[in-house]
Every structure is written in C-alpha cells, then in structure tokens.
Design goal:
Blueprint: H1 5-47, H2 66-72, H3 75-106, H4 113-125, H5 128-138, H6 145-152, H7 166-194, H8 198-206, H9 211-222, H10 224-239, H11 243-248, H12 260-270, H13 274-299, H14 302-305
Length: 306
C-alpha cells in the first residue's frame, strides 16, 4: 500500500532532523571558538604583514614579510633564540629528572608520603608572579636566605649577586622553573607509576631483576606516554616563560635571560612595534609546533602499549 504523501514528508523531515541534530548541537561552541580563537589568529596573521607602530596609529603600510625579516635579522632575535634554547633544554631536562625522582619517592610505602605530597604540590599552586617574587627574595644579594644559608655553613666568604651575573641568573631562572613546574610533573609520573600492574614487578623480580633493571626495562617503557605529555607541555611552558622573567630578572643582566617571549614583549610594550611583536608570536608558535611534531615522532607513545 502506498504511503500517504504527508506521512512521507514528515518521515523525511524527521530523518533530516536526526542527521542535522549533532551538527546543530555543536554549532554554538563552533561559533564561540571562531569568534574568540580562530578570528584573532587570522587577524593577527594579517596584521603581521603590515607595519603597526603604536606611535603612528593611523599609518599602517603593507610590508609583506618585512616584519619577519627585520626581527629575524636583528641581534636580539639571535640572542633570544640562543638563550631560549639553552634555557628550554636545561629546564625541561631538570624538571623531568626532578619530577620523576619525586614520583618514585612518593610511589614507595614511606610513612611521610602523604604529607610530602602536600608540601611538594605547594609550589605549583602558587601564581607565577608570586613564585618569582619569592625567588627574588631568596636570591637577593643583600639579605637573601640562600646567601645567608651558604654563609652560615661557611661555603662562601661574601654574599653572591646571583641575579647580577649572567650565568648565575640563567641558573636561577632554571631553578625557579623546576621548583614551580616540578610538582605537576611529579603528579603525572606518579599517576603513571600507579597504573603499572604489580605483576610486571613480580615477574621482573622472579627473573632476578635489580631495582635499576626494573626501572629501566619496566617503568621507563611503560611511562613513555607520560614522558611525551610532560616533555611537550613543559617545553611549551619553558618557551613561553614570561612572568618569572618579568619579576626575577627583567631579561637581564646583559640580555642573558631575555627569552624570545621577553623579546616579543619588549617589541610591543617597549619598542611599541606591534607588527614585530606579532611576527615574533607567530614564529614562537611555529617553532613550538615543530618541536611537538618532533617529539611525537621520536617518542611514539603507541609503541609502549603495543
């Protein structure tokens, strides 16, 4: 028996409505993302091809890749790239070693594991500016607690100006980064360690594996996915470090702690050159993306679960 035309139309409309529902349900989210994420990115890329000097608000001539060429060929860019590379490698390696060591300690059955978790988490809970101010007080050349402790122990004859020496300033910045980011890394590794089945450890012990053998052949391979997450996140965080630099060193002394993020800030807010600042921001994003792709290819977390 032939279906009534009105019923067929209703059935067709109902079927179209069911197909369209998933797309309509996420449409508000897509609109918000487009307005507050995609559009600003497109607008920023467009602005990078124009000369935007905040001292000349009504004059924005098209310069093509001029902004990129000017920042890349400047002394400050070469210096900031070098400083950023050294800082990022040292900070990421340091925070991974620190976080993994703390996680291994907390994963044991020591009595103080509970209180230690709270104490270790405190630095991560502090805002970056507060953390920077705290380290500025600790490293102060006149009344810093670190100098006072070293002097009391007889390790130094006079107070050391940690933030006035280029090498010590770099080390101080790296130390502050590890102290601030270490707790989060430790939690990541601790979660990964607690997901490893006990059977793996028992099998390794039956085979006569030592603590080092178990760590190397059981824990590290099974933590590969965690290593990837930690390294990617901390690399991004290190490259984009700004708050601590602003409070602790101000990019000095002699631009020794002027990371590329600080260079971008200086171009916009000190040089009042918005075009240069946006060009640097795009370069930072591109470099970070390339590093993430390299990490994904090198670590290959899926192999750990295969």
């Amino acid at each position: 028996m032939a279906q009534h035309p009105g019923a067929a139309r209703r059935h067709h409309s109902l079927r179209l409505g069911r197909k369209a529902y998933p797309y309509l349900s996420i449409l508000p989210v897509l609109i918000v993302v487009a307005l507050f994420a995609i559009y600003p990115i497109i607008h920023a890329v467009r602005m990078s091809f124009y000369k935007y000097l905040l001292t000349r608000p009504n004059d924005h001539p098209f310069v093509g890749l001029g902004n990129f060429i000017e920042v890349i060929t400047s002394y400050y860019f070469k210096n900031s790239i070098q400083v950023t590379a050294i800082y990022t490698v040292a900070a990421v390696v340091g925070v991974v070693i620190y976080g993994l060591g703390v996680a291994l300690l907390l994963n044991t059955s020591i009595k103080l594991a509970g209180p230690l978790k709270i104490v270790i988490l405190l630095p991560w809970a502090l805002p970056a500016v507060v953390s920077g101010l705290l380290w500025k007080w600790i490293l102060n050349a006149d009344f810093g607690i670190l100098n006072g402790l070293l002097y009391a122990l007889g390790l130094i004859d006079s107070y050391i100006p940690f933030l006035a020496d280029p090498t010590l300033a770099k080390l101080s910045l790296i130390m502050a980064f590890i102290w601030k980011e270490g707790p989060l890394v430790a939690i990541f590794f601790l979660a990964g360690l607690q997901l490893i089945p006990d059977e793996y450890y028992e099998a390794a012990k039956i085979d006569g594996g030592s603590a080092w053998t178990i760590f190397r052949h059981v824990k590290v391979p099974l933590l590969r996915a965690v290593f990837l997450i930690v390294i990617v996140y901390e690399t991004m965080t290190a490259i984009l470090t700004f708050d601590t630099i602003y409070v602790l060193t101000g990019g000095g002394p002699a631009d020794s702690t002027a990371l590329i993020s600080w260079f971008a800030y200086a171009e916009i807010f000190k040089g009042l050159n918005l075009g240069h600042g946006i060009a640097l921001a795009i370069i930072i994003a591109a470099v970070t993306l390339v590093l993430i792709l390299v990490y994904l290819r090198a670590l290959k977390p899926e192999e750990a679960t295969s």
